[in-house]
Write the structure tokens for this entry.
Amino acid sequence: MGELVSAQTLLKETRKAKKALVSINVENMETVQALLEAAAESSDPVLVAVSERTLSYATPATFVAMIRAVAAPLEVRYGIHLDHATRLETVESCLRAGFNSIMYDGSSYSYESNVNITERVVEMCQPYGAAVEAKLGYGGDEKGLDGEKESLLGDPALAKDFLSKTGVDSLAVSIGGNHGSHECGPDINFGVMRSIRKEVDVPLVLHGADGLRGEVIRECIRLGISRFNFCTKLRDSFSRAVMERLAEDPDVVDPKKYLRAGREAFKKAAKRIFETIDKKD
Ligand SMILES: [Zn+2]
């Protein structure tokens, strides 16, 4: 039986097992099915993530209903996560619909504004018992920092200050990856990661982990990353499989025929991620 579990609990459990929690973005019914089946078959928990942008395609209630219904017959422990919310209305509608994990991304604001609005998100989530993830960023008012990403994004003292002021449950860190494109290059700054880990004790989340090699992922886990977000490559595998199927047979009109190909490709890609996370050195 599928079990909806709080993100804090899942993070604690995976950390204890010297692993990390996997969060993967879904887009539609097929990707929800693919992800939950992959997690169940890998015996791993998962955060099923839906981005704010995806929620303009289908409502929070639609996603919650789909995720719960798909998970119900599977042996899987999962959370339902809102990824990169920038609007409080999105947070509110997701909480009402049954999301139990919220990422608020105030990284485009100034540091002070990010603190204030994230505090508000924490207050909103409390009555629902939902976990809150936040992100530190360049800050709209912080001119001249663009060329010095680490100075603000990976500043351990600032991370500590942010956490004590907001009380969030986890923190998205930037340690070399180019988050804008949701791609992390091989230029992960392990030194910054180590110093942040030393200063703060909340779970750290690495976004845009799609491009990371297995050994880099495991080194990140050793150094204290508790959760990885994947998105781009899975979407890519879904869409490419659909395109290939349609190219093979341009007369196909039954959506089930090409969407099935996308679903299978997405599931395969998700299983590879779980294998990487599960691999012990
Ligand atoms: Zn992200």
Observations:
- The radius of gyration is 18 Å.
- The pocket of zinc ion is lined by residues 84, 179, 182, 207-208, 229 (CB under 6 Å).
- Residues 255-278 form the longest helix (24 residues).
